[in-house]
Amino acid sequence: MGFLSNAFRKVVFWNYPRTSWQWDVLCVLILVFIFLTPKSWFENNEFRRQRTVVISADVVGNEPDTALIERRARDAVGRPSGRVTDVRPRRDDSGRVIAYEVDIR
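Structure (tokenized):
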């Protein structure tokens, strides 16, 4: 048991001399990790999958029904199980709603 704990301690604290074979093995393991790790492990998929869709006010009619707007946005993205996080009206200069911006995850 003392041999394993001693070896583990040396690996964790990097206590091997620079010219030893253990040093070379640790360096190779680090390089293997750097070059063979998939990029997907380091990407934030939740943020990347969020989209903003603009739905025209003509499509949903004059009455702003949020359930209808959310359903149209899900259909436009092609994700029927998507979660709508925000619905913002887009207005023209006179203050009339011309479209809705919908954020979907």
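The chain is about 45% helix and 20% strand. The first strand starts at residue 51 and ends at 56.
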